[in-house]
Design a protein that fits this description.
heterodimer, A: two-stranded antiparallel ribbon, B: mainly alpha, 69% helix
């Protein structure tokens, strides 16, 4: 089962590359659906029977490389499968429309499918890896595909942004790799769970933790290392912006979770957690203020990603907040729910922005007067995903922020609660600013280009899922609790 | 000549030194090609560190695992370099630009 989660997108990628362009998108959709089925079955298995393990080639750790899936892997596999399938559906409509209109658009269409599926396969592999070097290699697989996708548009702006992205991402990986090398020098193994039992507080372990955290912070675009993100995410073509912003930044965040709680559980200190929390808070404030200052829709959404990533890093201080029972449970589930809600909402926002850019032929917010009346479905999707980001009930974002708020108050770290409140207000600021432009009466009726309905529907469905996921959280929480760090450590 | 420390430590420290030089270059140099070379120097430093770690125990033979990892790492580094150089060439042929400076405001129209 576990190997098929990786193999379905991988086979799809190879087939999509070899087949004629006409069939590539169909192959990709088939691979996406197959992966959705396999990932769902694996997650159900984890939910019912507990964590899964698989030794590649029959060689176990420490010599061999193991695949390992716990609740965290399961929930992220599902995030990737669900969001990825809708992005795939959207991209089919997007490229068909684009190619019918413009012959020059054929190039990116042909390359999008294999690159996107390679990214997907690498990401799935990353989520199932339990070996730090393997994690490094798969991060590079994800990174290479992501940079190539970001450059697909081929316009100078996209090239410049993706080159900056490439240097940041690969530099970050090498910093991470030096940390891995330090750990290997000290403990002679790279298996995540074996290391978890071996690592003790020492200067070597501290240095390794610092290097690995910095490397991953660059790739996750944590303030102040976010310089590469807005350009790369805004200049890419619509389906690529969505998958970069919603999914790819979570790959390196996932690795930092593994490093902090599975490998270095004994080394991380209260102060280290506070430090990441401060950077996260600054990211929330800086990203949101920058988002309000933008004149282009896609740049606004990209800056909002910088801010929303900040919330994820509040998880680190809250997991180490005293010994109150049930506290790490709330911090962990709140952080994870923020991750899921942001994935769905941000994918929806960028997909909707793609529809807006196509119909209005502009990205400028000032040109969007009257949009709400002309493309209501898409405007509704933008608004609804904005509501999720603000965190109004009953959305997934509300539940996430509520849990984080409770965790911060119960642990006596009230300052994070203040950050959550201010962050919510600032987020509301840029979401309402964006919506206000669309509701203004238009000066003249613009002639809109019709886009395929599948594009509008994909954006709307993702927004609805993000909004409704707050209604029932019991099953995701049960899945998340399988071998969760707060159960193992305490 | 007897060294005052284990020989592997010397190589490991050289590796860390190379890594730092590469990191400095990545941040400070403006030219894209220099940045890509700096990335390679960083990589070389990490690989040297890994290889020297294989000799940390004075057994008969060296630990083979770091060598396997370094081989994989070199392949990854080669792919990354080739790809980054291609991007840089494309940037140069479309804009005549060899640095990452923002020549125009990025407004992100797609």
């Amino acid at each position: 089962m576990m190997e098929w989660v990786i193999l379905t997108p991988l086979l799809g990628a190879v087939l999509a590359y070899s087949f004629r362009r006409k069939y590539a998108s169909t192959v990709a959709l088939a691979a996406a659906l197959a992966n959705l089925v396999v990932a769902t079955r694996l997650s159900l298995d984890i939910w019912r029977k507990g964590a899964h393990q698989y030794s590649l080639g029959g060689w176990g750790a420490p010599l061999g490389i193991e695949l390992y899936a716990d609740g965290l892997s399961g929930i992220l596999l599902m995030m990737l499968a669900v969001t990825g399938t809708w992005i795939t559906l959207y991209a089919r409509g997007y490229f068909r429309y684009e190619e019918a209109r413009d012959v020059a658009a054929r190039g990116p269409g042909g390359l999008f499918w294999p690159l996107w599926l390679f990214l997907w396969a690498g990401f799935n592999g990353l989520l199932l890896s339990s070996d730090l070097f393997n994690i490094y290699v798969l991060l590079e697989v994800v990174g290479l595909s992501a940079v190539a996708l970001a450059a697909l548009g081929g316009r100078p702006k996209a090239l410049l942004a993706s080159l900056r992205y490439a240097l940041a991402a690969f530099g970050g990986s090498l910093v991470f790799l030096l940390g891995v090398a330090l750990l290997y020098a000290q403990y002679h193994t790279l298996d995540v769970r074996l290391l978890g039992g071996l690592v003790e507080v020492s200067p070597v372990a501290r240095t390794a933790l610092m290097l690995m955290t910095v490397g991953m912070a660059v790739k996750t675009a944590l303030f102040p290392l976010h310089f590469w993100l807005p350009g790369a995410h805004a200049a890419a073509i619509a389906p690529v912006s969505a998958l970069l912003s919603a999914l790819v930044v979570k790959a390196s965040f996932y690795v930092s979770l593994r490093v902090w709680f599975d490998v270095m559980g004994s080394t991380v200190t209260f102060e280290a957690g506070q430090f990441l929390g401060v950077l996260g808070s600054l990211a929330i404030i800086w990203g949101s203020i920058q988002a309000m200052r933008q004149k282009g829709l896609k740049l606004l959404i990209a800056h909002s990603t910088v801010g929303q990533i900040g919330y994820l890093f509040l998880l680190f201080p809250l997991m180490h907040g005293g010994d109150t029972a049930g506290l790490p449970f709330k911090a962990w589930n709140g952080g994870m729910y923020q991750l899921l809600a942001h994935a769905l909402a941000k994918a929806s926002m960028f997909l909707a922005a793609g529809v807006v850019v196509r119909s209005l032929r502009t990205d400028q917010l000032s040109q969007m007067a009257g949009m709400a009346g002309q493309i209501p479905l898409t405007t509704f999707a933008l608004g609804l995903s904005g509501v999720t980001l603000i965190g109004l009930p009953p959305t997934g974002g509300f539940l996430a922020k509520w849990l984080l708020m409770e965790a911060s108050l119960e642990s006596g770290q009230w300052w994070w609660a203040a950050v959550l409140v201010v962050g919510g207000l600032l987020t509301a600021g840029y979401v309402f600013l964006m919506l206000a432009y669309t509701l203004r009466p238009p000066k003249k009726t613009p002639d809109l280009e019709r886009v395929p309905l599948s594009m509008e529907v994909a954006a709307l469905v993702l927004a609805l899922m993000a909004a409704l996921m707050g209604l029932r959280a019991e099953e995701p929480f049960q899945l998340l609790s399988v071998e969760a760090p707060w159960r193992v450590n305490r | 000549m007897e060294l005052p420390w284990e020989p592997f430590l010397l190589f490991a420290l050289c590796g860390v030194g190379l890594f730092s030089i590469g990191f400095f270059g990545l941040v400070v140099c403006a030219h894209v090609l220099r940045k890509i070379l700096a990335l390679n120097i960083m990589g070389g430093g990490v690989f040297l560190f890994f290889i020297s770690v294989a000799r940390r125990n004075t057994h008969e033979f060296a630990d083979p695992v770091p060598q396997a990892m370094v081989l994989t790492g070199i392949v990854v580094a080669l792919g990354v370099t080739a790809f980054a150089v291609t991007l840089a060439r494309r940037l140069y042929s479309t804009t005549r630009q060899t640095t990452l400076s923002r020549s125009e405001r990025e407004e992100g129209i797609s």
